[in-house]
Structure formats: C-alpha cells, structure tokens
Design a protein that fits this description.
This protein is of the alpha/beta class and about 260 residues long. The chain has one domain: NAD(P)-binding Rossmann-like Domain (Rossmann fold). The chain is about 40% helix and about 15% strand. It has 8 helices and 7 strands. The protein has a 7-stranded parallel sheet with strand order 3-2-1-4-5-6-7, sandwiched between helices. Helix 4 links the parallel strand 4 and strand 5. Helix 3 packs parallel to helix 4 and helix 4 runs parallel beside helix 6. It is globular. The protein binds NADPH dihydro-nicotinamide-adenine-dinucleotide phosphate. The site of NADPH dihydro-nicotinamide-adenine-dinucleotide phosphate has 31 residues, from helix 1 and strand 2. The site of NADPH dihydro-nicotinamide-adenine-dinucleotide phosphate (NDP) has 31 residues, from helix 1 and strand 2.
C-alpha cells in the first residue's frame, strides 16, 4: 500500500522584499522543475538575474522565466543536456553573454537510478555519472573562468552521499559522493580568488523525482527526525543563504537540508 508522507508546510519563500542578490547573475542547472525551479525563483526573488537550463521541459522552463519576469525580474532558459559537454559549456557562456557576468553557479540537475548493485547496466552508470558528476565538473570549470571575487559554486548533492545508505542506491550515492571531492578541492583552488564552493545535501524533498506519495515515501519520512518530507523551497533557502552575504565565510562545506535524516 502506498502512503503519502507528510510534507512540512512551506514558510517564507522569498526574501521579504530585501534583495540581497541585486546586480548578481546566477545559472541554475535543471531549473525547470522541482528543487531547481524553487532555487531559480528564490534567487530571482532575492534580486539575481537567473539563467536556467533544462533538458526536455522547455514549456516548464519558459513558465519559470515568465513567473520571474512577471515579478519584475530577469530570466533566460536554455536547453543544455547534462550529457552534452558542449551544451553545458555553452550554457555558461550564454548566461554571461545574456547578462554580462556570472556570480553564482548552482549545479542542481541530477538523475537517480535505484536498482540492486549487480543489476546496474553500463549505460546507466554512464548516464548517471555524466549527469551528476561530469556536467557539474564541466560547468564549474567553465564558470570559474568568469566568476569574480565573491563568486559562488553551489552543488546539490544528497543525504545519500554522506548521511544514509540505502540498498539500491549504489550508483546514485557514488555520483553524489563525488561532488564532495569536487567541492572541497574547488574550495581550496578557488579560495585564493575569493570564490566559495559548497554542497547542499537534501533529504526527501517532494518533487517528481521523489514524490511524497511515492512507494517508499512513508519509509523515507519516517527516517527523518521531523517525520516529514521537505519542499524545494527549503533547499532554495539554504542555497540563497550560501549565495548571499551569509555565505561569505562558508566554503568547502556540506550542509544537510534533510529534516534530520539519520540524526
Ligand atoms: P526532478 O526530477 O524533479 O527535476 C530534475 C531537473 O533536472 C529538471 O529540471 C530536469 O530538466 C533537469 N535534468 C534532469 N536531467 C537532466 C539532464 N540530463 N540535462 C539537463 N537537465 C536535466 O529532480 P529534483 O528536483 O528532485 O532534484 C534536483 C536535484 O536534487 C538533483 O540533483 C537530485 O539528485 C537532488 N536531490 C533530490 C532529492 C529529492 O528527494 N527530490 C533528494 C536529494 C537530492 P527537464 O525537466 O528538462 O527534464
């Protein structure tokens, strides 16, 4: 039987009229749906011009752009499949062309394959590692050429990278754990230029990827200290903190937004 998990009630979704990111430009990968959409809307509400990438969901991406523009912000959507290195690099260059600079890269686009370790096909290994590891690596590399002092690289990992292990999660956990190595090293390499690199590890967040009415939702919610799923806006609030002045002295960090998963 499928049981719907409780989702924590959303509170503040934007910055109460304060626009701490005014004048900044952000690129959010996978900004058409789910957590990426919430991040794009939140950074725009905080004043940033936002470029967002999508793979197939052009209509949804354009809706996000319209929503930001209706609220008086600037946004631009670009198709960039994470599996396509040239497209990933072009999306970074496109954001700079469009808005004149790049201050914040959010590596959000990601996919999951959950299956017993021994059943995972080579195609799945390539697809997940290219999307969840190679693309963030290449995007960070392309962005680093443009990020000014105060620039931010924020990647979306998973509680499965460090905090909890589930049977069936070997490939996904491997990909997300790789971002820890990337983030910590970027913090060191780019720190002298005043650029920070951090990871946000969501727990169960109600999206298409992990719906709060899915088969394992009640089990996942039950493993959190709060006994509930979170929302994309919960992750977006932490990304906004890292992107803003509050993130000035945070780098190389992994921050859990997981309702106390395995606390
Ligand atoms: P969704 O499946 O709801 O949304 C995924 C987004 O990424 C979409 O915008 C999608 O674009 C984009 N995307 C997927 N594959 C590609 C690709 N190959 N190239 C470009 N864009 C792509 O996922 P979530 O919002 O739930 O997840 C966002 C991030 O958070 C992921 O990295 C995920 O691993 C991580 N995460 C999520 C958790 C959860 O419980 N939801 C928990 C822990 C981590 P399009 O619409 O065009 O397909």
């Amino acid at each position: 039987m499928t049981m719907t998990a409780t989702v924590l009630t959303a509170t503040t979704e934007a910055g109460n009229g304060v626009r701490p990111l005014a004048g900044k430009v952000a690129l959010v990968t996978g900004g058409s749906r789910g957590i990426g959409r919430a991040i794009a809307l939140r950074l725009a509400a905080d004043g940033a011009a936002v470029a967002l990438t999508f793979r197939s969901g052009q209509d949804l991406a354009e809706q996000v752009v319209k929503e930001i523009e209706r609220a008086g912000g600037q946004a631009w959507a670009v198709r960039a499949d994470s599996g396509d290195a040239a497209a990933v690099r072009a999306s970074v260059a496109g954001a700079v062309d469009r808005f004149g600079r790049l201050d914040i890269l959010v590596n959000n686009a990601g996919i999951g394959v959950l299956a017993p370790f021994e059943d995972i096909a080579l195609d799945d290994v390539d697809r997940v590692l290219w999307t969840n590891v190679r693309a963030p690596f290449l995007a960070a590399q392309a962005a680093a050429a443009h990020l000014p002092e105060g620039g931010r690289i924020i990647s979306i990992g998973s509680c499965m990278a460090e905090r909890v292990a589930f049977p069936g999660g070997s490939l996904y956990a491997t990909s997300k754990a790789a971002l820890t190595g990337l983030t910590r090293t970027l913090a060191r390499e780019l720190g002298p230029r005043g650029i920070t690199a951090n990871l946000v590890h969501p727990g169960p967040i109600d999206t298409d990827m992990n719906p709060a009415d899915g088969d394992s939702a009640a089990m996942q919610a039950g493993l959190t200290a709060l006994g509930a799923y979170g929302r994309g806006t919960d992750v977006a609030a932490t990304v906004a903190h890292l992107a803003g002045d509050g993130g000035r002295y945070i780098t190389g960090a992994s921050i859990a937004v997981d309702g106390g998963f395995a606390a």
